[in-house]
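anyone seen this seq b4? input:
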Amino acid sequence: MPKISIIGAGNVGATAAYTIAKFNFVTDVVLLDIKPGLAEGKSFDMMQASRMLNIDSRITGVTGDYEATKDSDVVIITSGIPRKPGMTREQLIGTNAGIVKDVVSNIMRYSPLCRILVVSNPMDTMAYLTTQISGLPPRKVIGMGGMLDSSRFNYYLSQALKAPLSDIDSMVIGGHSDTTMVPLMSRAYYKGGKLGSALSVKEKNEVINKTKIGGATLTKLIGTSAWYAPGTAVAALAKAIIMNEKRLYTCSCYLNGQYGEKDICLGVPCIIGKHGAERVIEFGLTKTEMKKFKESASAIRKTNNILHEMKAI
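predicted toks r here
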């Protein structure tokens, strides 16, 4: 029966575990953390809510015991530290690259056939690192970011339109950061049709700007990074893989010529099924959108180059 392991029992990892269990599509969810008792305590709390929610999945928390993750079908990596005051981007990448390398090594030791979902930041670069060091086919490594950014885009569009979220369909491509993401207003749909004049140019620009700073807005309000939407996004991504749903999601995938880019993980529309990111869908972009996508790719490459400079890959 399907098994999912989550590395990192912080807010995002724990939310992912709970949401996966509530979806009821796997037998076992393993939550692993290096802090003694954290994963165990959170798993006890979740399991004690299971009867009331008719959850059949079993959630198990462990401290540093990767053997408990053995034969996982999907492994989610949320491990890493946030950027702290005074910390350079290079320092953040160096620290999180070391953490991710250790995690991937342990994952591959016990689950060599798994699919890996990367949440750790900087997400596109950590997905690229995982692709390079895991030995897995590139389609089996997926970064979650685009799903979260697209969800935020949908939300801000629904607010501007004063419409239910179910009436909105939109996507964000490019890198997973406020300076590199590319919300596609040309592919934003309201009740099945393009937005057209439903929003003014000013309103559209406001939605795009709010989407780009969506994460920073939440951090300012609550004092830490978001967790409900990111945890739910990666849970839905895991479900699409396990259930072979063939869903179209925007994810950070390894590109080999698609959208004119190679040797990079970047947010693009993908068909997600049992093999991972099974196919990249190449939608037509406006000239402005393509220009911004290329700029996004350039920025992510500069970040990836830090990995090479520090000989992480």
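DSSP finds nine helices and 14 strands in the chain. The chain has a mean pLDDT of 95. kinda curious what u guys think
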